[in-house]
């Protein structure tokens, strides 16, 4: 900025800032006569909107009273803790203003994604200017009192965060963690043919791994049936303390990079407001014209070549319009403008005076009337109703979500004449049902996979659709389709982010992944779970469809991949989140998997994690039994234990959760029933892991009395678990019989080996479970010492066989449940 005023260092007692140099405040500027598509009136009005939004943004960071500066600023008007980020806000406000111009002139259906971190003051300000904020929060009226409330709540206890969050009107993108904006934008555009997403990407954000991969999302956007994304790369050159990579490489290199990703960038650069407005208007118009032409060609001329999509590169100063110099240090245009340019405004009279001049430089008397409301000229720049980006129902996905058309899963169930009499690949059985779910919901359901759909046995889906692919299709490619309903890209980040954007804007989907590699999106899952949790407390946010994971190729069956592919720890990550949001299911066979997933696709506002194997596995329950068992979530399998006379208690409880642990538990039960017929055994299978949590902590939890009824209050419990053993202890530590609970699970022992050798490495095998029973049932160690020794020998024999023959010993590989009657 030019025509700056210098504020001398203050030496009063109120000045405790310890300045070492001058502080310079910006002064009001006059718009230059920069050429461009905007006439003088349009230019003046757009600039006024931008100034108003900037004023409101600065006020949110600093003020808790005196919002219109009707008296000189005093310490009591300033927040005691100055939290927030101004550096990125002017760029966000600039794009919002120009997007509104396009919405009005073109009747666009548009939403806004603010990718730069902690840019919340900008969308908050724009939502207030548009009136949406006051409609959703009646105590924040569009007047002086409402402006005070808007300011006071920002980054304040009991208020709203400094980034875009569920409380932010018009936002469906959580701004607390960087890297996901472009994926959310593209996910929103899928199956929304009339939607335009203005997505501002911070140049710091652009350095993250997820964002670097997400430029390729344009290879999955079909111009004929999807909406459009207009990426705006905001290059303001700095992060918290360092320059950004993309802002410091030569422009020719940057343009070549973006063209290589499949975009045609338009550069907007400068610090003169009039010139930047004119250039931005030109760029936005050019991009939207090009998007319209791409879509027309695809929809009317059947052009199916992948287009080169337009985008904007916006180079403006960091903290544009803030004080250029503070305490002798350059601020505007440097990393020092990233957060709070005047950090001592409450305690330092010099800073406070500059803050007041900074706010007055926006000329608020021209922007707000005597009541504090935006002037009629500003209100005339606001689109009507749902065309406001802050009010677009797309950004409140629960307002648009439609129930899926789900075929009756029972028609896909497998026949189970007796427990263990048949075997199926559970996920292949599920895949037949998901095939028909896909066919029945051609614009409302997508499946995402990092090149693992067929590997996880869901390839039946590809009989009714192809893999979405907008790039070149080669002669030998299989099942690639411009309109495919499966998105396969070898980036877990992209799968997760696209699905999140799809769900957050009102649709449904599934993400299937190898269990070990779902950890790649731990942080993304965390942010989505936090969004669900926070948005549940926002009255106007409506529940969205659940985020549904299907984790297969799991820890116990990595026969050729080995140690690198063996990690069940995502369950531990998930269970750190709010109990009201997360659900974890471990169905033991094909029919229980079908029943579980039908429930998941009908649910709302959860994260459902389902772990199921893809290898042939015994079928234990019929369709009707699966319904009952999955409805309970946990239950006694009477047919697997002893049906002694009423009133007797078991001597031991064999519990299991997961398909392989269930198999090993039943095999152990069969050995015990044969060798120790007087031992009373109870087998308890867990499908819904949250049933182990006390009812006070999770809505699915069992009461203490219910838990004791299943697991007893004093008998040994040998629990075979799919994941890390300590997770079960964590869930059940408050239970009466926790001291009697002994858990076997994965303990970080793995390699490329056979299935049974894998369970032996982790002491989860049937022989070790029998040994645990002998060791823990009172008096049994002495009476069953011979059986225990046999089990030790059986383990040694199985290990030796594997080492000699390369496969599991036949007695294990060919084992069947020996009892046919239920």
UniProtKB/TrEMBL annotation:
Cofactor(s) named in the record: thiamine diphosphate
Keyword Cell membrane: no
Location of the Xylulose 5-phosphate/Fructose 6-phosphate phosphoketolase C-terminal domain: 614-817
Enzyme superclass (EC): lyase
Superkingdom field: Bacteria
Domain Xylulose 5-phosphate/Fructose 6-phosphate phosphoketolase N-terminal, first and last residues per copy: 39-399
Record EC number: 4.1.2.-
Annotated spans, Disordered: 1-32
Keywords, sorted A to Z: Lyase, Thiamine pyrophosphate
Biased composition regions of type Polar residues, renumbered to the chain: 1-14
Family assignment from sequence similarity: Belongs to the XFP family.
Name under which the protein is recorded: Probable phosphoketolase
Species name: Nocardia jiangxiensis
